[in-house]
Amino acid sequence: MVYKYVRRRYRDGLLMLLFGLTAVVFAACSNSEDATATGATVRPTATTVPSTATAVSPTAVSPTATTLPTATMPAVATTPPTPTETPVAMEAEQGVTVDVRATGAFGEILIGPNRLTLYIFDRDIEGVSNCAGGCLNAWPPLLVDKEPALGDGVTATIGTITRGDGSTQVTVNGFPAYYWQGDTEEGDTGGQGVNNAWWVFNPDGTPQRPAKVAMATDDGLGGILVDGSGRTLYIYDRDTEGVSNCSGGCLGAWPPLLTEYPPVAVGDVTAAVGSITRSDGTVQVTVNGFPAYYWQSDVAAGDTLGHARGGVWWVFNPNGTPQRPAKVALAEHPTLGNILVDGAGLTLYLFDNDTPGVSNCSGGCLNNWPPLLTGYPPIAVGDVTASIGSIARNDDTVQVTVNGLPAYYWVGDGAPGDAGGQAIGGVWWVMSASGAAVGN
């Protein structure tokens, strides 16, 4: 009996050792293969134990034999992200609807919860979105389902409107806010200036909208340049390219068109639009290099009351040239007295062979006696009392007339004050302030 008892205990001990070794080897192999294939920890269950172990009494099995070493668990699956992996956008996604971001080109601007730039649409009005259909594909609105929250630095008034489809769109100072489809990364501002109608927001909600120079049609003057709201723009004869000579009281009557951002030409404007910095640090818009102004008495879009004011202020054509008509003025000559001259001071003449409304100077005559032409109704300036008008010549040019008679230059006069054409052939004469021939 003792022998049988010892033999049975010896057998049981061997089985327990075999079972333990088998479980450890099996677990190590399973973990190695499964972890390599899936990257996840696999813990063997009781059903994976070989059937030869089923003869062992459960009470005889050591609990430590089935415990897996912790070193076999892959660390990758449980490693938490480091603080540097946390995106900046996460703060916005956790509640901030409108935030501020600094950009290199535009300074601080407003962005949405996805950190993308927000824009205002010029055709919207306060509280109303006029972007629909295909417009919304290119300019998705910033929508919310709860009260919008502001980030640090936002000083604009943030609110909402209900769109036609029932969705809720965020507004900035009452104007709907949008994204631009072309912006894909934080800091993108590709929508700025698109179609001269979309602009980024400053933190206070004002748009970074530059001054615009556009074209309008006037019944009497035809196409002229206006600002973005339709107010007429003017050029000043006493300015030079890149220099404003209007200051003091002049600026009170002729306010400059100012801009905070690079100005833009819109529509059919072919003039070169730029800017200069005035002595007070403000930036004035230029057209073909010449400063642009308003006239104080123009109170509504379409008013052109400043045109020809003082014989030195003119509206612009769409190509930037001034609608400056020919001028007839008075200048003092040392021997002939006060005589008629053009706006540059060159002497004017009449021809005895002409009749009122008809020029009889043609061919070679015109080579020596070029006509005073004008693109716009001519004007008399200063103390001129003669009647100033115009006629159409056979070549469709328009010649200035004085009391109905065509006015000419003499080819030999090269500077203001010259009057070398006086009495040539006994038929060419300078004119007095009243338009009468002098010396005839």
Topology:
Layout: H1 2-38, H2 89-93, E1 99-103, E2 107-111, E3 119-121, H3 134-138, E4 143-144, E5 158-162, E6 168-172, E7 175-176, E8 198-200, E9 212-218, E10 222-227, E11 234-236, H4 249-253, E12 264-265, E13 273-277, E14 283-287, E15 290-291, E16 313-315, E17 327-333, E18 337-342, E19 349-351, H5 364-368, E20 379-380, E21 388-392, E22 398-402, E23 405-406, E24 428-430
Parallel strand pairs: 9-12, 17-20
Antiparallel strand pairs: 1-2, 3-8, 4-6, 5-6, 6-7, 9-10, 11-16, 13-14, 14-15, 17-18, 19-24, 21-22, 22-23
Distinctive features:
elongated, 440 residues, three-stranded mixed sheet, alpha+beta
> Are there runs of 5+ residues with pLDDT below 50, and where?
1-11, 21-93
End-to-end distance, in Å?
168 Å
Shape category: elongated
Largest sheet: 4 strands, antiparallel
Task: Report on this structure.
The chain has 440 residues and is an alpha+beta fold. It has four domains: 2-78, no CATH class; 89-200, no CATH class; 212-315, no CATH class; 327-430, no CATH class. 13% of the residues lie in helices and 22% in strands. It has helices at 2-38, 89-93, 134-138, 249-253, 364-368, and strands spanning 99-103, 107-111, 119-121, 143-144, 158-162, 168-172, 175-176, 198-200, 212-218, 222-227, 234-236, 264-265, 273-277, 283-287, 290-291, 313-315, 327-333, 337-342, 349-351, 379-380, 388-392, 398-402, 405-406, 428-430. Strands 4, 5, 6 and 7 form a four-stranded antiparallel beta sheet that branches. The chain has a three-stranded mixed beta sheet with strand order 10-9-12, with no helix packed on it. Residues 1-11 and 21-93 have low confidence and may be disordered.
